[in-house]
What does this fold into?
Amino acid sequence: QKEVEQNSGPLSVPEGAIASLNCTYSDRGSQSFFWYRQYSGKSPELIMSIYSNGDKEDGRFTAQLNKASQYVSLLIRDSQPSDSATYLCAVNVGSSNTGKLIFGQGTTLQVKP
Amino acid sequence: DAGITQSPRHKVTETGTPVTLRCHQTENHRYMYWYRQDPGHGLRLIHYSYGVKDTDKGEVSDGYSVSRSKTEDFLLTLESATSSQTSVYFCAISDPGTALGGYTFGSGTRLTVV
It folds into this structure.
């Protein structure tokens, strides 16, 4: 069964620090990788997508992908209390072009002022 | 959020009754999805659609059916609600022209089956 694994946390970091969120996946055929942020009681929102090995930066966020190790990570620099949320890693289902995703259970991030 | 709405936002229903949840989009996206979110399980795909009248099952489709008669509407029906279907249901849309799998989610429907 295809799986996406995340440490549920909570991950607690002080304001201004770097938060590092990690995700592993089981399906070697996966080609598309996403990070969603979900505030308590709200719907998930897309914050990063990555398709190639290496790093992708967008503002304070950096996504990292290593397909050989089947590993995706999200770094949040200069963490703010407003970053406190659950971060969901999602991976497309194999070679499917239907956009179906498998989600991890999410990592809860707490940024302490 | 703009472009995708779900209704109702909250519903309480009795075991054994049919329930229909609606997802409406104004983005003209081809792909639409229904997920449920439960503690300890994360988001799981129920059904998805890749066009009008084109639908397929996800990993937790038992007890659910869907219909898509128009591009903008995707309906999820619980044929005979059970307590195990108490959950938060999210609809999502995706545009293959940009990032297939890069979803925009609706606000969710909190369903309680008593």
